[in-house]
């Protein structure tokens, strides 16, 4: 760090602690330098929504609640919400979505898009400061079939983004220049990366895609200054390591065991634990070659942030045969549980069950279905699903799941967990695949009943998992959810509607047809010059909404 | 400005040898490709079977095990693609190999032989109906079509739009499927033709087919063939559990030979 940078940081810290006004009167020139923005530091990200003019990490804060304290837009006035500007990205992803969550700091939005485009945008006008486009190799593997990205991480003047050829990049946020570029894994084998990096104190955490290929997933931590790797957690154990007993005793199978980590995780700074979801075992549908539970596939892992070592895990779908990756945003909350305070982590899972776990120990507290599923009757006291193997199970939620990675939201005061539910019916016929590096190997075929398919926004009581209310959509939906302390839920659907609901009773208060489906993204909100904005990506556009100016 | 245009001209002349080379290269590639235009495995019945195995392993997750696509992810029905204008085996080969840029369809570095096997498989599941000759009296078929079908279906320039355009139907549906659609129209109603009856707040009923729908609105073509959009909030009720708007034509009403005549007439429209 050069001297002037160090000086800025000291000034910023002093300015925060002492009176900014007095300091400014004494040293106007120095304050001007300090405002020559050195960008948010770890302490700023840690404060989450304390400064609602900022949104510095994927969910707005480390907890994954996606619950903003902003109240300017409320249940009374939301009906007059209107678009203020639309940003056209000009880059498409057929079959997937514009899945990003923009970050905002100092009136500037930092947005990633499909095909590894990225932009800095004036949050007030929607006008672009700079655009980045990565030159991608023409032999992408997983990255070619899902050329998406879910957002930046930010620290100081640096932005961090992962790529479809499985690299991690650091940008200068002022001009989009690349400061460093490191390879996470060899994309030609089947790796890619699409999540929003999680920035914590002195580390950038990221994962990889590729569980449909002969890959082995991992979660990595990198030095934000240099791109040097600090630690790696392999989601599939090596021979002899804990968890390897849940696999055949064959190093080759372990080395291709899958377990992608493509959705970003959450972080508890007090416990110093990172919570991250792990994807399907490979091959997806064919399990005969991998008898056993196949840890840590389809699990939530809690990792020590300093070392990347596993503290605990919980496996939602042992020996998965349905491609039910557990790559969801783990939602952290401190709630009253059976008469006492409890630190919990909540997950609405692709397998159709909503889970509450103790996030200190990983203890199973609750598991209740939130969609129709005949995969498992219930989750037993020990936290293991009672899977129906009696031939009666018929169809199950399709491989896209009862929900997916689209972010849910938790409203602490109401104790309600809001998620997008998908009602589908699929039959899977496994077939033994030939595992070839660089080629996808699903290991079977899927028959989806075209006559069954709908979606819903559902509000679940986290104490019981019971449905409090729902709003139904005509087709299975991939839009995410945002809540605000004004009693509002914002959600998007497959038909392109961006909507606001009364969080208490589910009454629809407002909707706007964006013209293209909202897929994989949840809304974000921030305040700028006294006006609250709500942003949603849809199709190839990003639209900002606000109340009419008086 | 003038400096800019001069430099452009200079650049162009410098590029001319390169352009020539590119043109030559394109010609060379095109001639190589044309040598591949026929599937070298076309006469081998094992090719389609082998292609089916590859398809189920590599393509079915998006295109469905039956190659009929998955609409929720925009994966197209591949059994219908052969009827697209300009579609050829060589073009399918290229699409599999190169992918479709800007779409979810990736490129594949399979050996040429395996791609031809996939092409053979896709040929074998293609919905092209000419499994049987059209032996009816097309002149009589045209008169029957005008009397029974033309109000809702088009087969050429004129006709209705409540039902599918039948102008190319014998190319994309088998005769068996067409006969079944005439005799029992409820057995399979395509997307875009699902029937509905809407009861509106001004106390009138609208019957039609659903063209589009979201959580707040519905778009229909009503039975008088007028496009109408409704906010769901202005509807009292809707009923989807109803028969197709296409009436059934049992044998007593339309004999087998009359149906042959109509199919022959439709086949002439190609």
Describe the structure.
The complex is a heterodimer of chains A (550) and B (270). By secondary structure, chain A is mainly β. Chain A has 6 helices and 37 strands. In chain A, a hairpin with a 4-residue loop joins strand 8 and strand 9. Chain A starts with a helix and ends with a strand. Residues 1-35 of chain A have low confidence and may be disordered. Chain B is α+β, with helices and mostly antiparallel strands and 270 residues long. Chain B has 9 helices and 5 strands; from the N terminus they run ααααααααβββββα. Chain B has helices spanning 2-35, 45-58, 60-63, 89-98, 112-124, 138-148, 169-172, 175-183, 256-268, and strands spanning 195-200, 205-213, 217-222, 227-231, 235-239. The longest helix of chain B has 34 residues, at 2-35. The chains are: A mainly beta (550), B alpha+beta (270). The A-B interface holds A 92-96, 138-141, 144-147, 399-400, 429, 431, 433-434, 438-448, 450, 453, 471-476, 493-497, 499, 508, 511, 513 and B 56-58, 60-62, 64-66, 70-75, 99, 102-107, 109, 213-216.
Considering the chains and any ligands shown, give keywords for the structure.
heterodimer; A: mainly beta; four-stranded antiparallel beta sheet; B: 270 residues; alpha+beta; five-stranded antiparallel beta sheet; 5 strands
Write a brief structural summary:
The complex is a heterodimer of chains A (550) and B (270). Chain A is mostly beta strands. Chain A has six helices and 37 strands.
């Amino acid at each position: 760090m050069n001297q002037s940078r160090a000086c800025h940081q000291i000034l910023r810290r002093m300015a925060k602690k002492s009176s900014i006004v007095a300091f400014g009167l004494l040293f106007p020139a120095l304050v001007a330098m300090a405002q020559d923005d050195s960008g948010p530091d770890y302490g700023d990200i840690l404060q989450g929504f304390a400064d609602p003019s900022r949104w510095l990490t994927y969910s707005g804060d480390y907890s994954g609640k996606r619950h903003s304290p902003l109240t300017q837009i409320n249940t009374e006035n939301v009906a007059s919400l209107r678009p203020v500007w639309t940003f056209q990205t000009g880059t498409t992803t057929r079959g997937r979505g514009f899945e990003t969550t923009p970050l905002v700091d100092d009136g500037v939005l930092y947005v990633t898009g499909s095909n590894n485009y990225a932009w800095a945008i004036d949050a007030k006008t929607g006008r672009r400061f700079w655009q980045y486009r990565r030159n991608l190799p023409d032999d992408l593997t997983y990255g070619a079939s899902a050329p998406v990205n879910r957002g930046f991480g930010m620290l100081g003047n640096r932005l961090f983004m992962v790529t479809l050829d499985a690299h991690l990049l650091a940008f200068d946020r002022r001009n989009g220049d690349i400061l460093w570029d490191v390879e996470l894994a060899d994309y030609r084998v089947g790796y890619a990366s699409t999540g929003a990096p999680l920035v914590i104190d002195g580390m950038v955490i990221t994962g990889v895609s590729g569980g449909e290929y002969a890959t082995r997933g991992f979660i990595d931590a990198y030095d934000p200054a240099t791109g040097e790797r600090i630690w790696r957690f392999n989601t599939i154990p090596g021979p002899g390591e804990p968890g390897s007993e849940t696999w055949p005793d064959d190093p080759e199978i372990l080395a291709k065991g899958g377990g992608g980590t493509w959705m970003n995780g959450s972080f508890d700074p007090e416990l110093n634990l990172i919570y991250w979801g792990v994807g399907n075992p490979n091959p997806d549908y064919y399990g005969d070659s991998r008898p056993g539970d196949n840890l840590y596939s389809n699990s939530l892992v809690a990792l020590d942030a300093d070392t990347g070592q596993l503290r605990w895990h919980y496996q939602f779908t042992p020996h998965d045969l349905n491609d039910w990756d557990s790559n969801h945003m783990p939602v952290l909350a401190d709630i009253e549980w059976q008469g006492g305070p409890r630190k919990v982590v909540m997950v609405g899972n692709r397998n159709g069950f909503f889970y509450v776990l103790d996030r200190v120990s990983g203890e199973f507290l609750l598991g209740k279905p939130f969609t129709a599923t005949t995969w498992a009757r219930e989750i037993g006291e020990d936290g293991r699903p009672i899977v129906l193997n009696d031939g009666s199970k018929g169809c199950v939620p399709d491989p896209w799941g009862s929900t997916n990675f689209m972010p849910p939201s938790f409203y602490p005061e109401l104790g309600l967990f809001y998620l997008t539910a998908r009602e589908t019916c699929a039959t899977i016929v496994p077939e033994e695949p030939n595992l070839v590096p660089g080629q996808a190997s699903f290991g079977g075929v899927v028959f989806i009943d075209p006559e069954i398919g709908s979606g819903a926004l559902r509000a679940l009581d986290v104490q019981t998992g019971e449905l409090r209310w729902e709003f139904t959509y005509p087709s299975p939906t991939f839009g995410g959810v945002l809540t605000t302390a004004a009693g509002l839920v914002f959600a998007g659907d497959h038909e392109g509607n961006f909507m606001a609901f009364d969080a208490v009773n589910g009454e629809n208060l407002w909707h706007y047809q964006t013209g293209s489906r909202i897929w994989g993204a949840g809304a974000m909100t921030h305040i700028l010059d006294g006006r609250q904005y709500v942003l949603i990506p849809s199709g190839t556009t990003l639209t900002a909404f606000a109340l009419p100016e008086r | 400005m003038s400096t800019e245009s001069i430099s452009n001209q200079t650049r162009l002349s410098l590029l001319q040898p390169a352009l020539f080379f590119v043109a030559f290269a394109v010609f060379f590639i095109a001639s190589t490709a044309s040598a591949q235009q026929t599937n070298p495995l076309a006469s081998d019945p094992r090719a389609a079977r082998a292609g089916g195995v590859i398809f189920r392993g590599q393509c079915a997750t998006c295109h469905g095990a039956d190659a009929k696509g998955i609409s929720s992810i925009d994966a197209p029905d591949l059994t219908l693609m052969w009827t697209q204008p300009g579609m050829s085996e060589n073009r399918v080969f290229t699409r599999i190999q190169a992918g479709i840029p800007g779409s979810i369809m990736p490129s594949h570095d399979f050996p040429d032989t395996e791609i031809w096997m996939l092409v053979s498989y896709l040929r074998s599941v293609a919905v092209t109906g000419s499994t049987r000759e059209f032996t009816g009296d097309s002149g009589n078929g045209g008169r029957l079509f005008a009397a029974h079908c033309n109000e809702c279906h088009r087969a050429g320039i004129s006709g209705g739009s409540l039902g599918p355009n039948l102008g190319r139907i014998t190319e994309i549906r088998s005769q068996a499927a067409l006969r079944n659609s005439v005799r029992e129209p409820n057995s399979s109603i395509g997307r875009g033709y699902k029937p509905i009856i809407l009861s509106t707040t001004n106390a009138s009923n609208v019957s039609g087919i659903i063209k589009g729908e979201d959580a707040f609105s519905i778009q229909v073509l009503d039975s008088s063939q007028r496009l109408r959009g409704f906010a769901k909030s202005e509807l009292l009720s809707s009923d989807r559990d109803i028969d197709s708007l296409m009436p059934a034509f049992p044998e007593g009403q339309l004999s087998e030979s009359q149906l042959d005549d109509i199919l022959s007439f439709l086949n002439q429209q190609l």
